[in-house]
Amino acid sequence: MRIPKPLVVALATAIAAPAMAASNTLVGWAMLPADSFSDGPTSGQMASGNPYGTFPPPYDDRQPVQGFSAVLPGADENSFIVMTDNGFGARENSADTLLRLYSVQPDFRTATGGTGKVGASDVLSAAPLARFSHPSRLTLNDINRRLALPIQADYRFYYNDGSKPPVDASISFGRLLTGADLDIESVRQDKHCAMWFGDEFGPYLIKTDASGTVTRSAISLPGVYAPHHADVVAGRATANLAASGGFEGLAINPRGDRLYALLEKTVQGDPAGTLRINEFDIEQERYTGRVFLYRLQSPEHAIGDMTAIDDRRFLVIERNGATATQGEPFKKIYLIDTQAVGSGGGVRKTELVDLMQLADPHDLNGDGQRLFSFPYVTIESVLPLDSRTLLVINDNNFPGGGGRERAADATEFLKIRLASPIAGVRPAYLQRDKQLRRCDAPKA
């Protein structure tokens, strides 16, 4: 898509409004330690450790419960469904890492109590579990051979390379999907209970049923090709999107019939520092051709997540790659609006939360400070819990580190009370309850 010159000029005016004056406040905090694992095939056999020497791979008969890149409401108001991304950060080192969603139950530390720990829970009932075991998770699979893409389960050795370890029998038998097959960074559930995943390798949209089983072939974004797209690999197309530049954000409207897929990097030929938001019709299973542009505060920034408030307003996490141990962190949440913006135009953008400047009057994370900062490299999950409260979670890039200290990063769960409410937000657990009733309703 070429952006007409008048719209390029218009984009220059679509910059962020000043931050809200009053303080946003940390009202809940919980932490999942870096060394949190679930059962599964051995992982990390092709991965490298962090430079700090903490929790080096491989992980025998274990899968890391880490790298959360998306969050959905759970089976009750105290639980959440979190999605792991492709594993160890690249296609080349994640072939033994399963693509999973886990049900978690944070016991938030608040002004009145709470342990600050994050436990496992049953993905269907939200009942607490002693560990991250089978009832706590969904594992993506292509048991019905719908993808039409080669996956690790098709090979005898990882990457079809005899110098690599043999593909685990559980991956082959269940045709389980791994981080070398897809780089999923976002997920939403539609009004029919199907799940849609945003991938970065294609970029593709991947559709599964409610159990995580793929139900159709991968859907490409017309005219956009990342280096790992099947057509680029086969020589039928030329890449015009950088690696890891695909669907980092994926929002769904309240009716559950439209997806809004936000790329992480700029398509070649688009204005520098702009990212496409592509509208997708769930009923027709095709893109509508409607596109909006999100302008980054700086071209070297990236986005972490995109969540719908309604049909026109969305929350977007924008960040740079700096941390508390290196550089000057930029980590913010913006409210964007597409009202009266034509296709190809730039969205209006207002700063909502500076994640490096949160009031923490009760020192919930126990660092001795009354000002809380969230300096992790990647922060990739935001969920409105009600009109005044956001849930925010970092992706710890396990076993990477350096977010707060020179060690493997933990995963922190934040509840943030907004200085000013967002009108029209329906509480997350009520949305989930409505969704479950709709899914369970008899089909005509």
From TrEMBL:
Show where the Phytase-like domain sits. 63-398
**InterPro entries documented for this protein:** Phytase-like_dom (IPR027372)
Q: Which domain of life is it from?
A: Bacteria
Task: Give the UniProt keywords, A-Z.
Answer: Signal
Q: Does the keyword tRNA processing apply?
A: no
**Keyword Membrane belongs to the record:** no
Entry coiled-coil feature ranges: none
What does UniProt give as the signal peptide span? 1-21
Query: What's the name of the protein?
Result: PEP-CTERM sorting domain-containing protein
What organism does this protein naturally occur in?
Answer: Stutzerimonas stutzeri
